[in-house]
Amino acid sequence: MSKVEAIVAGHLCLDITPTFPEGAGDVQARLQPGKLVEVGPAAISTGGAVSNTGIGLHRLGVATRLMGKVGDDTIGRAIVDFVRGIDPALATGMIVVPGEASSYTVVISPPGVDRMFLHCPGANNTFGADDVPYDQLAGARLFHFGYPPLMRRMYADGGRELETMLRRVKERGVTTSLDMVMVDPRSEAGRVDWPTLLKRVLPYVDIFLPSLDETLVMFGSEQVNVSELSKRLQNWGAGIVGFKLGDQGLYVRWKDRERHAPCFQVNVVSAAGSGDATIAGFLAAWLRGLPPEETMTLAVAVGACCCEAPDTTSGLRSWDEVQARLQAGWQRRPSSFKLKAG
What we know:
By secondary structure, the protein is an alpha/beta fold. It contains 11 helices and 14 strands. The radius of gyration is 19 Å and the shape is globular. The relative contact order is 0.14.
């Protein structure tokens, strides 16, 4: 692993995404108990931050290893086989545990409707700080960890395992990056005191890139001054702080400088995985030393590419392909997001 630039660890699952035929009508209205909704073939791929961000970095030319935890069941074997099919080197950091159930997600994403998920956390719930082989981080420049709210050991006990893992990584001189995921308020994770947990772990986080919506849920708030929130997270210890804004683009604070990048125009097939792809673009540009504006442009461009496919990874493109679209005058989407003084 000495030649690896980036290690992407955390949540990993198998995504099963039914496709919806054109002219399906108001699918949302028909998704009711007792009703049958005819769908097309399922798109099956790996999902979760490990897959979505990790494969995105790989497609963008970053030497990457994936570090996820699966069982030795049929779903686990499918996950490992899928990763190996992209590049055998990607799978060398995978953790396979006999007897554990592997994670899967059914992604329901009808045209024109925000996606819904049916999720089984599986072996992600037992991922702990000791699962990371720290002696194998030598030579890596970046350690990205994703989705601790879907990993029970990572949010239990006030985030002790998450803090331990990130601290150990930073002690080895590796830059740390952290992404979150939407918390179900009715779940065990929904009862966690997330602000207190973040105060505990953010001193060991160099790049923090959650979505704004999931951050507001963790803070129990519907409205927020984005500038104030990003400054608060930096005061708690985070370095770069950014918020994915859905179709409004990406907001990032570097030290005391704020920037906003609107999305690019695409024919959206599915938004599944687009936030993780945005992070992949951001981290790939950061690893190449691009200035903030170019880093954010690349980030939202990669996120837009992801939206052109029904699953989370097949829309991802190479660095050169993304750059070619940008240089050809790719148009931005209108955005109503405005920076406000905080």
